[in-house]
Amino acid sequence: MSANSNTHPSASVMTDHEPILDARTRLRLGLQLQALYEPVLDEVLDPRLAELLQQLETDRGATDVGP
Fold this sequence. Notes:
The chain is 63% helix and 0% strand. It starts with 10 loop residues before the first helix and ends with a helix. It is built from three helices and no strands. It is mainly alpha-helical.
């Protein structure tokens, strides 16, 4: 058994070729993913998470000012 037994047998071959999905399929998939995730982007961020992100930003700013 080889070290790469968890990979698909044709995985290395796939990297040498053009994309398997044609442009029309990629476009349709992209639109469906956008429709799926767009409502998530419109959701209001939980105030606790917003506060943590603000603190992280503040802490990073303090370390960037160093020597």
